[in-house]
Amino acid sequence: MKNLIFTVIALLVCTQIHAQENNYADVNGVKIYYEIHGEGEPIVLLHGFTMSNNMWEGWIEDLSKNYKLILPDLRGHGNSTNPSNEFTHKESASDIYGLLDLLKIDKFNAIGFSSGAMTLTHMATMDTTRLQAMVLVGSTSFFPEYCREIQRSTSYENVDEGELNYLKEQHPRGETQIRNLLTQFKNMADSYDDMNFTSPYLSSIKSKTLVIHGDRDAFFPVDIPVNSYKSIPNSYLWIVPNFGHNSIDKNSIWADAFLKVVNKFFSGEWN
């Protein structure tokens, strides 16, 4: 009986390990970890910088009722690797397209927060045929100077205890991984070609686009999302009042409204 129990446990462990290995995609010299939940039309959910796909945990149950959710960890984040220890949103966009190619997903919708949304902006301009509709939350077309000041001041030593504990929960490789991500974020202060989407460039986007932005966003003032709304041909704009960078917090007063708006947006009911 004991041998039978040990055999069952071993099989379960092997199955779990095999499943975990199958949740990695080798693209562009990195291993992208991803999860899939639900069935239906595919929606890619992209998290913000220094976060992981766990940021969508509170939304999975509701969104997976109608959609097939693809939740990657961006390169170097969470369980994904990044041997180069360098990050650009353009490379991130190429990674996600590589993942979707391996999953044999051609047409798709997407929601991105912050760096996830910036990745989507690159994806929408790199290929105007695959990304059908996207929601950009807390995004930007360029880094304003005071955002660069925040980036320049970022370091592992300046992170408070609460934020550090959060980062440790998201990134299993610990201090080294967290330091690398914070260094990459700091280096964005001196990058002027990765996020540099002028209005003519944004006007080339064919994806139906919903821009969501908090009016108290500490990184990007509302004139940036307003300009994106004006520049992207088939776009909608929701400025969330009295809210900061993360205007889709599951615990916020706007959570139910966000879910309803996103479902209506992706359903094709909006003209």
Topology (SSEs and partners):
Blueprint: H1 2-22, E1 24-27, E2 30-37, E3 41-46, H2 57-63, E4 67-72, H3 89-102, E5 108-113, H4 115-126, E6 131-137, H5 145-152, H6 161-170, H7 174-187, H8 199-202, E7 208-214, H9 223-231, E8 235-240, H10 255-267
Parallel strand pairs: 3-4, 3-5, 5-6, 6-7, 7-8
Antiparallel strand pairs: 1-2, 2-4
Strand fraction = 15-25%
Helix-strand makeup class: alpha/beta
Reading the helices and strands in chain order gives HEEEHEHEHEHHHHEHEH
State the end-to-end CA separation.
Answer: 64 Å
Overall description:
- The chain is globular.
- It has 271 residues and is α/β, with parallel strands linked by helices.
- The chain starts with a helix and ends with a helix.
- It has 10 helices and 8 strands.
- An 8-stranded mixed sheet has the order 1-2-4-3-5-6-7-8, with helices on both faces.
- Strand 1 and strand 2 form a beta hairpin.
Short description:
With 271 residues, the chain is of the alpha/beta class. It contains ten helices and eight strands. It is 41% helix and 18% strand.
Overview features:
single chain, alpha/beta, 10 helices, 41% helix, globular
